[in-house]
Specification:
alpha+beta, single chain, 14 helices, 21 strands
Length: 531
């Protein structure tokens, strides 16, 4: 047995002791079957399962099985029913009326109603979720019209409003559990999640696994098909790949498997590899730059960095072709992407010219300036990214000092602006009015709040344009506004856009109907079944 597999066995054995792996027919069943267990890798281990409090990807993956949103989204980014079975929008674009599913109960047996939706959007999520707080600023009122009907009245039209209701963005939480709490973010009740989703928490053995069991009160008749979900904590990518190969786990997603292992896994007959299910997220990777620190505060320096980085090399050699070189703040798949724009070229000579223009001459060692970089602690590929950028910038005289941090430390340093540069990525959520603006608008410069405007970039014209773009109803005029935004940000370069990412989901062939829409593995798994 290979050494890393040998070291893996005790962890898998401890995490999956309750499981019996049955033999299965390789050609699958014609119809979904009840029963069985699904085992999915999770890394890093989520600090909480309350997705309304913490938007990190591992929290979203697990929390979206427990909590639900009003809507879900298809592969082609159309809104679909979830807790809301239907909806209408008034002719003036100011009233959104949601008809809720009937007979829904919370996992503790209490009835779900429109009052829970009102509580979630007017109290809980306003305190805990910066994304919800941003778009709720344009909401005049949220009213329970009846126990199964909720009306949102907006102050001004916002065409992107329907893209704001997924489980990971805006989970509906139980009013009866939280109504007397003073601090939602730090409530001990977050450790005992009560949701309307198909699964509920059964056991959490920290450092090993999180077990979810079937919610007996789930409102979709006959679902879920699975008896239980295990989210197995496997910190090492090589061990995750080995566990997939051996059948010890059934699913990996996002960056669980290092990109250099994907070609090998594609060839294995017991595994299926797909990039579908990330359409709603449209992940964009960039180098976050603290615009408050010299020389990073000068756009010429940021452009010099951009020209010195060969992003085609990154895409092809570090990410194994799983992506597309980024042009600007919007991904190609996002509404209102400006097709006239071209990516920054790889041009070290231009980089050196900009540094000369700034008066940053090489010293005796060829160093013009020194900056710090904090690698993203999500796996070996990110360490390789940091090492490549360090080498690339050194060629034009920019020395990079790498200073690592664990996941919790990275998140705190990032939120508290205690960094110079780091890698991060953000989700686009189909329409730029939903989440793109939060990275660049001045009102989102909030120290201590992660995944806001950490760079400190501030431009009154950008603030005005994002506000106008969110309210404009005419698609042609919206295109004009968002094109202006893209060109201004392209020139100011507050962050360095690197690549539009393509995440990968790897599943055992015994798994069926796991990814059924544009939210991919960040969905309920109510339809998933195993042979």
């Amino acid at each position: 047995m290979r050494p890393y597999l040998q070291s893996m066995r005790p962890l898998i054995a401890g995490a999956l002791a309750a499981l019996a792996v049955a033999s299965f027919a390789s050609n699958g069943y014609a119809e979904p079957k009840h029963g069985g267990t699904l085992r999915m890798a999770i890394n890093p281990e989520p600090p909480t399962l309350m997705v309304g409090v913490n938007p990190q990807t591992p929290v979203q993956i697990v929390g979206s099985k427990i909590y639900e949103g009003l809507l879900d989204y298809s592969f082609d980014l159309k809104p679909e029913p979830s807790l809301a079975k239907s909806w209408t929008v008034s002719a003036d674009g100011l009233t959104y009326d949601f008809k809720l599913q009937e007979g829904v109960k919370w996992s503790d047996g209490e009835p779900f109603s429109a009052e829970d939706v009102v509580f979630s959007f007017t109290k809980f999520l306003l305190e805990t979720n910066v994304g919800v707080r941003n778009y709720m600023a344009n909401v005049d009122s949220v009213t329970a019209v009846s126990p199964t009907e909720v009306a949102f009245k907006l102050k001004s039209p916002k065409p992107a409003f329907l893209y704001s209701f997924s489980a990971e963005q805006a989970p509906i939480v139980p009013q009866h559990v939280y109504k007397d709490e003073k601090d939602f973010r730090n409530s001990p009740k977050n450790d005992k999640p009560i949701g309307t989703g198909p699964f509920m928490l059964d056991e959490w053995k920290h450092g090993e696994y999180i077990k979810l069991k079937r919610n007996p009160n789930y409102w979709q008749k006959g679902k879920p098909y699975l008896d239980a979900l295990y989210f197995v904590v496997i910190p090492d990518s090589a061990s995750r790949a080995a566990a997939l190969e051996n059948g010890d786990i059934d699913v990996t997603s996002f960056n669980d498997i290092e990109v250099f292992d994907i070609p090998r896994l594609r060839k294995l007959p017991n595994l299926h590899v797909s990039t579908k299910g990330y359409e709603y997220l449209s992940p964009m990777m960039w180098i976050e730059v603290n615009n408050r620190k010299k020389p990073l505060d000068d756009p010429r320096f940021r452009k010099a960095m951009m020209y010195a980085i060969d992003r085609e090399f990154i895409k092809d050699n570090i990410w194994n072709g799983l992506g597309e070189v980024a042009v600007g703040p919007l991904a190609h798949s996002t509404l209102y992407f400006d097709k006239s724009m071209k990516p920054y070229a790889y041009d070290p000579k231009k980089s050196a010219e900009l540094l000369d223009e700034m008066g940053l001459k090489p010293d005796a060692n060829g160093v013009r300036a020194t900056i710090e970089m904090m690698p993203l602690p999500y796996g070996e590929v990110w360490n390789r990214m940091a090492e490549y950028v360090k080498q690339a910038l050194a060629k034009v005289g920019i020395a990079v000092e790498l200073k690592g941090a664990d996941v919790a430390g990275w998140r705190k340093k990032f939120a508290d602006w205690d960094y110079s540069t780091t890698f991060t990525y953000g989700y686009q959520y189909a329409d730029p009015a939903v989440r793109v603006g939060r990275t660049y608008t001045s009102d989102n410069i909030k120290k201590g709040v992660p995944f806001s405007n950490e760079s400190g970039y501030s431009n009154p014209e950008i603030d005005k344009l994002f506000d106008e773009g969110a309210k404009e109803v005419d698609p042609a005029k919206r295109q004009e506004i968002y094109s202006k935004i893209q060109h201004i940000l392209y020139d100011d370069l507050p962050v360095l856009w690197i690549m539009e990412m393509k995440f990968v989901t790897v599943t055992n062939v015994r798994v069926h109907d796991l990814v059924t829409g544009g939210t991919g593995v960040v969905s309920s798994f109510a339809n998933a079944y195993v042979n």
